[in-house]
Write a structure and sequence with these properties.
DNA-binding (chains A, B), flat, transcription regulation (chains A, B), Tet_transcr_reg_TetR-rel_C_sf (chains A, B), transcription (chains A, B), homodimer, DNA-binding, mainly alpha
DNA sequence: AGAGTGTACCGTACATTGTACGGCTCAGGT
DNA sequence: ACCTGAGCCGTACAATGTACGGTACACTCT
């Protein structure tokens, strides 16, 4: 990152913005809400690194520094973008109402989170340990905990189980996003890329050899036409995790 | 990111560097190996964003542009750092020799990967979908697959199972790294930070309320003195995942 | 109606980044 | 003794976030 060190977002200021109404328009119609929406649109296309305050301002047809009247800096802006992105995650349906009990609910949660992460890959680049206290994130947490309540788990176990599923979804989604971005940047699909470096690779590692890695890597490559298939990783991992959670829950039930 | 767009690393060039010997010293003693080592040292302390070519050059007491004689650019440099960081992961012991069968082996793998990620948190910021073909990474893959061979799993399943464990470790380690970095940047522990924003938060969300989120969040906070405990998340998730994998493997055995 | 005031807006400037470009300086071969 | 090529590096440039200080408008009070 260049320029001034992008000073860490002020927590109190972020909170006030997060929970504020965002709707008092300035004299040129500029709104926190409009800034955040524009930034999300741009980040969806170009990613968080490529997102600049100048770009956001241009898109809104205002001077760059006008943004700073409404938003303290880029850090706080990304905090707002993050909360906003989860705005209508469960607007139409909530996990606890899905069929299939807690298992169906967690599958629904995984799928919905996956969808958000696919639509907004820049979320992976937002530092989120403490800032995750906006209204939408808090509501999300509340709703996602519901199907886990009353199963005999302790409160800490409920949180751990949910976090496990969400971490898995995030990890596989991140790998998928990286794959897509690499393909886009290089203009090569995984297949084309492999064909291109394959000769160099075999030449260079001629004297060493890795029988297992070779066998398994080839099998994976042929099965998915790629080194990794994020969708498959998602369902394989989710099934395994839910099987594991079932043992825990049955032990309590 | 500033400056020229940090052009995506050239795959063939990266491969040649990755598998090269790195040991021909230039006339000022400069070596690819030395550059990579210096960069890792700096990144361990300051992170990948704060790592600049100028810093690396200063540390080595050479001009900034001299680095470009040995390394095409920052992208390729991080590729080299990545492979290097996994250099002696299993130098002293390998997973397949651990007690506890495949389960003990996977626990060992998880622990060792966790250790590397803790020592080099910048690894989380290296884009690694395609570049992961250096000698150390390839050997790592070979060694980590061994304990999963001969259990009745298909090749694709072996890869999926390993990837599931590694993704979990990476996800929790990343959360832990973010937590640490945030604490360092702000100079506040999670507890101090919470005490500081708590009044603002309750004031701001006074009219809405989230009974489950409140109850569970409080329980977690009291149990771990923090919003999340990475070490606990690691073992909870690992246990669950291994329980799930056991069902898969027993079905095959 | 006129004056005053605060806030929205924004032009300019600066430090910092990766790296392109072109010149300098040596080691080694002839 | 000279040439050649590779290692080395000083300078320059475009892009970034944002500090600073100025301008212009909407409002309130007289």
């Amino acid at each position: 990152m260049a320029g001034r060190k992008a000073a860490a977002p002020d927590p109190a200021r972020s909170l006030a913005l997060l929970w504020g109404s965002h709707t008092k328009p300035g004299r040129s119609g500029l709104t926190v809400r409009a800034i955040v929406d524009a930034a999300i649109d741009l980040a969806d296309v170009s990613g968080l690194d490529a997102l600049s305050m100048r770009m956001v301002a241009d898109r809104l047809k205002v001077g760059t520094m006008s943004l700073y009247t409404h938003v303290p800096g880029k850090g706080e802006l990304t905090d707002l973008m993050f909360d906003q992105a989860y705005g209508d995650l469960y607007a139409d349906a909530e996990p606890a109402d899905q069929p299939g009990g807690w298992r169906g609910a967690l599958e629904f949660i995984a799928r919905r989170n996956w969808d958000v992460l696919s639509a907004h890959p820049w979320i992976h680049d937002v530092p989120t340990v403490r800032t995750a206290l906006g209204p939408n994130i808090t509501r999300k947490y509340e709703i996602e905990l519901r199907p886990l309540d009353g199963l005999g788990l302790t409160d800490v176990e409920m949180d751990s189980a949910l976090a496990l599923v969400l971490t898995h979804v995030q990890g596989t989604a991140r790998a998928g996003a990286e794959q897509l971005r690499t393909q886009r940047d290089s203009g090569l699909t995984d297949q084309e890329w492999w064909r291109q470096i394959s000769p160099t690779l075999t030449a260079v590692m001629s004297n060493t050899h890795f029988p297992l890695a070779g066998r398994v890597g080839t099998a994976v490559g042929e099965h998915f036409q790629s080194a990794l298939d994020p969708a498959h990783a998602l369902t394989f991992g989710l099934t395994t995790i839910l099987d594991g959670l079932a043992q825990l829950i049955e032990g309590r039930g």
